[in-house]
TrEMBL record:
It comes from the Eukaryota. Residues 13-218 form the B30.2/SPRY domain. Residues 216-236 are annotated as: Disordered. Pfam families: SPRY. Gene3D superfamilies: 2.60.120.920. This is B30.2/SPRY domain-containing protein. It comes from Maylandia zebra.
Amino acid sequence: MKVMSLGHNIINTCILYFPTEDGRLSEARNHYVNVKLEDRNNPYLKVAGNKVRDTHPDDLPGKSFPDGGMVTCVTAIKGTSGFSSGKHYWEVSVRRINTDIKQSWWVGVTSAAEIPSNSSTSFPNTSNGFWFLSSSPKRANSFQFSTQPEISIPFHSRPETVGVYLDCDSGELSFYNVEKKTLIGSFTARFKGDIFPLFNPGKGDTSVMEVVQREVQSQTGDEGNCAESVENKTET
């Protein structure tokens, strides 16, 4: 299935797949980078190193979020630094040992220099520089792409780790179920300027969201800007 939407002179093609074994994950992991979370000092998030979760309502002013129970940019956070060229891959853990798999999250990229902090801001989507995959406890059997209109992607099981592959030059953004070694789906787009990793831990889950860090190796290639390239640790 292929869907095309136009917005802000950026052409987005969304390609959906039923889960199948995909050898491209091994190739993507050759471009692993250690992404760090932006220090945004957001009162609605608890950030500790490479881990992030929503702040408990009891610790918030007014004991509530300004966007209520919705998941919006209020709880979103960027990764550093941005990419403007090259191939890059990172992984996001959405399960903590002895806890349930997270059901509320966003994972993807954005071209926004600053993430909107106003909950009344229109919902982020591909037409305003947000390309992401989202999960919600309200959707038990499908993920969603941030297209307009929104596109649902059926799945058989929730991933414990989501792999994100960004090819700035070809305009590809792909998402993988790392444990199953399957492709969830892909975007293609004309990315312009710096593109930043995007994360949102959602609300109400016990598990935290963790940006997986891997052992750094010396770098001699042209893997682009700013994030640390790392040794491939493909499982056997």
